[in-house]
Amino acid sequence: MRPPAIVAWCIGLAAALLGSPEGWANGQVVAGAAQETFTLPAGVPLAGYGRRKGEPSTGVHDPAGVRALVVRDADTTVAFVSCDLLVIDEHLDDAVRRRLIADGLPEPFTLVLAATHTHSGPGAYGTRFLEKISMGHFNPAVFEELVARISQAVARAAAQTVPVRLAYAEAPTEGLVANRMEPGGLVDARVVVCAFYPKAGDTPMAVLVNFAAHPTTLGAWNRQVSADYPGVVMQELGHRFPSAVCFFFAGAVGDQAPVKSGDGFERSDRIGRPLAEAAAAALAGSRPEVPRDVAAAQTRMPLAPAQLRLTSWLTLPSLLGNRLVDDDATITVVRIGPVVWFGVPCDLSAELGERLKAAARGRSLSPVVVGFADDYIGYCVSERLYRSRQYETSMAFNGPLTGTQLVEQAIRLMEPLAN
């Protein structure tokens, strides 16, 4: 870690150890937010498309970085982190957790470390064979930079927590997303926005946008670092709320594709700008309230043996497949007042995402589904979709029942938190 990072981390650590000067000691919910930009080596390969073959990037169109939000009450601490990355693998998640613990972040804490799933973010941080195909060869310097910046953002967020109010809103969108597995199939076109306000202020300190469309407006032809349309969303909201840290979390995007129009980077603008407008309008009509508490649960669910399809009729033996993919999945549920976040480590299909949302609403909770969180196990679709044998199902590495089992486990984790 460079000297400025060490200083910033020490400040954050001292604040985290001592607690917020107001609010937290009185049982109130407090929160703080911060952001960092990744400093990447020139020519870092981009993650997202095997067709790029790990070739060097040619520049930076818009910088990739990380946003952190630390929320806590007297009993529970949660760190929400949004990174401009393709996925979060178990290796990166474990390294960040170890860094936070080693540097003294008080335990226990719940980490929701999520990728926006941009297909034009930095690569070179994955160590497994399948990860290297999509993001180029592993570079320890890139990996260490990601760990350091993520940890620093969490520390800075923890250093400036204040009592907060929370707003939640949803809004419809039109013409931005389509079902890419079933023409005319289920489309999740609603944007969800949450905002944290200082208890005594009317300007948000953190704005969190959640939307379910693959960040693939930029194809394999792009060779510049970019956050894709999520970056446009955060930039546009940053103009509207200059004192806020703006986040993007991918929803259940497994079968949800962006509707592309225009040329080049114009494609990102044509989704990101109207999405930001819809989120801002929804937030303007919301009513922030003081959340009464924070509750969280996190577990690692064992997975079925690997079922890697080589062709429509040939599956790699599990003994070999198990060496290429994870054998467990991290699942997280966080409730802050009446809002519940589901952290899932996959490309979750919209159908399964709707099951999570329906379960939350049935318990009078407002849901947010956060994909690509804390791990990555491939696609999770319903058994019905799995039988269709499409690209997405070939990436469902652990068979036809994994998606349903993951959703059921998340609902079970929610039950005691809802009560």
Q: What would your notes on this structure say?
A:
This protein has helices spanning 3-18, 90-102, 129-135, 140-158, 228-240, 266-284, 318-321, 350-361, 383-386, 391-394, 402-418, and strands at 30-37, 59-60, 65-72, 77-83, 110-115, 162-172, 177-179, 190-198, 206-211, 224-225, 245-250, 256-258, 294-302, 308-309, 315-316, 328-336, 339-343, 347-348, 366-370, 379-380. Mean pLDDT is 91; it is low at 1-25. An eight-stranded mixed beta sheet has the order 5-4-3-1-6-8-9-11, sandwiched between helices. Strands 13-16-17-19 form a four-stranded mixed beta sheet, covered by helices on one side. It is of the alpha/beta class. It has eleven helices and 20 strands. It is 31% helix and 26% strand. The radius of gyration is 20 Å and the shape is globular. It has three domains: 3-34 and 62-158, no CATH class; 163-284, no CATH class; 294-418, no CATH class. Strand 8 and strand 9 (206-211) form a beta hairpin.
What is this entry, summarized?
By secondary structure, this protein is an alpha/beta fold. The chain has helices spanning 3-18, 90-102, 129-135, 140-158, 228-240, 266-284, 318-321, 350-361, 383-386, 391-394, 402-418, and strands spanning 30-37, 59-60, 65-72, 77-83, 110-115, 162-172, 177-179, 190-198, 206-211, 224-225, 245-250, 256-258, 294-302, 308-309, 315-316, 328-336, 339-343, 347-348, 366-370, 379-380.
